[in-house]
Design brief:
Blueprint: H1 2-18, H2 24-42, H3 46-81
Helix pairs in contact: 1-3, 2-3
């Protein structure tokens, strides 16, 4: 379960860097279905499947928030390095 949560957080961070929040819904659905199928094949109890699916979902969302924060910091650092003048045309003297 810990490895699955770490993987979900890392995947969420990648999606947070590149995509908008709506990408989380299909990723959560695919992940929960995959967890349910793999756990059902191995004969895991229903309560454990639900806990694993919840852990995956929460880890993915926290990872997404971490990715958003990283993107925010990178954009802030990039804008500080840019020159302050955004005008390409100089005003006449």
């Amino acid at each position: 379960m810990v490895l699955m949560a770490i993987g979900g957080a890392l995947l969420g961070a990648v999606f947070g860097l590149r995509f908008k929040v709506l990408v989380l819904l299909p990723v959560i659905v695919v992940g929960v279905v995959g967890i349910a199928v793999a756990s059902a094949i191995s004969g895991t109890a229903i309560s454990t499947i639900v806990i694993n699916a919840m852990a995956w979902t929460v880890a993915l969302q926290f990872g997404y928030l971490g990715g958003l924060f990283s993107r925010f910091v990178m954009v802030g650092a990039r804008t500080r390095l840019m020159p302050h003048s955004t005008s390409l045309v100089r005003a006449p003297h």
